[in-house]
Every structure is written in C-alpha cells, then in structure tokens.
Specification:
This protein is of the alpha/beta class. Helices cover about 35% and strands about 15% of the residues. It folds into 2 domains: about 160 residues, Aconitase, domain 4; about 45 residues, no CATH class. Strand 4, helix 3 and strand 5 form a beta-alpha-beta unit.
Length: about 220
C-alpha cells in the first residue's frame, strides 16, 4: 500500500449529501476482476457526458480532473460494504476525502487502501469547500494532522493513532501483522516444527508416497 505523508493538490468540490456506494461505484461493475482500471467506473452515472459539449461532472472538468482530494457532503459512502467504492477512488487518483461524516464501513475501508478520510465540523468543512470551489491548492499533512490553505491558514483534524500509523507506514492489515508480529509468527513456526514435524515434511521426505501410489495403480 502506498504511504501517505503529505499531499498538496486542488480539491474537487462535490457538495451533495448521502452519496452512497452505489453512486460511487455502481453494482453492475462489481464483477470486474482487477482493481486497476476501476477509476473509469467511478461515479459512472454522473459522468455520462465526459466527452460532450454540455455540463460535465466535476471530476471530468478541468482543473478538478487533476484533483487528488475530494470534498463532499455529509454521509459520504453509506450503503453497501463494497470495497470497490474505495478502490475506484484510489485508482482515479483520489488520496483524501473530506466530509462532515462518512458511512462507517466505507470509512474503515479507506484506511485499508491508502485513502485518508477526514471528518470536519460545519465551519471547517465550509472553509475547505470554498477553497475547493476556487481551485485553490490544499496541503494535507498527516503527521501534523493539519490542512493548510494557500493563504497560510491551518485547520487541525483528528485521526485514530493506529489508523494514522497504517497510512504513514503504508501498511494494510497483512502488512501490519507482519510488522508487529513477525517474531511471534517465527517463534510459533519454530515450535511447531519441533512439536509436529510431520506437518513440515519436505518433498523428498514425502517421496515414498509416489511409490505407494504406483503400487495402488
């Protein structure tokens, strides 16, 4: 998983509320076999005029089509537990989503996939949304837990220390286990080899089974 330290980018403004996971990543695309390329289906229904002359969805409209931060309304990511909603955001290039509130499972899935979800109160969220509307760059400093504006203003944000660490070190759930428990895992395997050696027989040691198989044929 890609590490997250600081991120400077304009933010795409999407002030709608209750954008659920089916809006973010429609269910009919759930059978796509790979994470790579899922960004093409992000907000698919809203992006029907990507190449036309009429109004376009914000993520298809310059300069916000280059945004790596998304500022949205409350209750973002409610609905189903599909992790593809986060995968599609990450594949599109979004590394940070800022909202007054999130769907609980979506919020958790963000940390497992290198995306930082930030919860802000109404006043702070309004200031960030105004900067997004004006296409002013923001800097997200995870270590300092701060959002920095172009004019020098700073907004703090809260984050669970454990989740902060996983993003800073780029650790998914398996990576975290290996980072924290590798010595315990190695010790367990060593004890098991002594106490239950039959579970760790080599191919050569199991070679007699080939002879038994031949006899049975």
């Amino acid at each position: 998983m890609e590490k997250f330290a600081t991120l400077t980018s304009i933010a795409a403004p999407l002030p709608e509320t209750h954008l659920d996971t089916d809006v973010i990543f429609p269910a009919r695309f759930l059978l796509l076999p790979d994470k790579k390329g899922l960004g093409e289906q992000l907000f698919n229904e809203r992006r029907s005029n990507r190449d036309g002359d009429g109004p376009r969805f914000v993520l298809d409209t310059p300069p916000w089509n280059q945004a790596r931060i998304l500022v949205t309304g409350r209750a973002f990511g409610t609905g189903s537990s599909r992790e593809q909603a986060v995968w599609s955001l990450a594949d599109f290039g979004i590394r940070c989503v800022i909202a007054p509130s999130f769907g609980e499972i979506f919020f958790s899935n963000c940390f497992k996939n290198g995306v930082l979800p930030i919860v802000l109160d109404e006043a702070a969220h309004g200031a960030v949304m105004a900067a997004a509307d004006a296409a002013q760059p923001l800097t997200i400093d995870l270590e300092a837990q701060a959002i920095r504006f172009q004019d020098g203003r700073t907004l703090p944000f809260a984050i669970d220390p454990h989740r902060k660490r996983t993003l800073l070190e780029g650790l998914d759930e398996i990576g975290l286990i290996l980072a924290d428990d590798l010595a315990d895992i190695s010790g367990f395997e060593a004890r098991q080899r002594q106490e239950r050696p039959w579970l760790h027989l080599t191919r050569e040691q199991l070679g007699y089974l080939d002879d038994v198989g031949e006899e049975l044929r």
